[in-house]
Amino acid sequence: MATKSLRELYVDELKDLYSAESQLVKALPKMAKAASSEELRQGFEAHLEQTKEQVQRLEEIFELLDESPKGKKCVGMEGLVKEGAEAMEEDFQDTVLDAALIGAAQRVEHYEIAAYGTVCEFATVLGEKDHLSLLEQTLEEEKETDEKLTELAKDINAQANEGQSIENDNEKDISTGKRKTSRRAA
Q: What gap in Å lies between CA 131 and CA 129, rounded to an integer?
């Protein structure tokens, strides 16, 4: 027989988010270091500072609830962070790695947007107005970060494609030693 309440689910979801944000605090410096684009590196560094503030907001909510934020590991974020780490281990050229990092970061943002949207709705139903304002602030930041990543991806993806095209144009046929001709449409 089920006995858990919406409030217990809410606290559980907040613990999951706390774990997720804490994992990001550890992952973002690695992503910043791996980025070749100065703008992307700065974006990851700025998001790290923002993520630390988001952790503090969650800690504030836990104080209001008289609960501990500890005790749960967010396996969803663990998987997303692992995928990002795997991308960094691949042998991608600089701009292609940046494109992979943006993709990994956007998956993280989409996960967070969904999770914060859920807890915002729970806070509304539970009448937790003080919590709601803090959670909505974070939700908006996550949406803004996703938009920034989308804009940055447009340039970086184009650069990654140009770099690949140039690389393909410069390849030599091993059997003849001559440059391979490009088959790109004009």
A: 5
**pLDDT tens track for 105-163:** 999 999 999 999 999 999 999 999 999 999 999 999 999 999 999 999 999 999 999 87
Q: What's the angle, vertex CA 47, arms to CA 42 and CA 48, rounded to 5?
A: 95
Instruction: Identify whether the C-beta of residue 139 lies closer than 8 Å to the C-beta of residue 44.
Output: no
DSSP structure string for 6-72: HHHHHHHHHHHHHHHHHHHHHHHHHHHHH--SHHHHHHHHHHHHHHHHHHHHHHHHHHHHT--S-S-
The answer for residues whose C-beta is within 8 angstroms of residue 94's C-beta and 6 or more apart is 36, 37, 163
Per-domain residue ranges for the chain? 6-169
Architecture of domain 6-169: Up-down Bundle (1.20)
Residue 52 burial by Cβ neighbours in a 10 Å radius (0-12, 13-18, 19+): middle
Tokens 């919406």 locate to 6
Helices (H) and strands (E) in the chain, counts: 5, 0
Cα atoms found within 13 Å of the Cα of residue 20, Cβ hemisphere only:
24
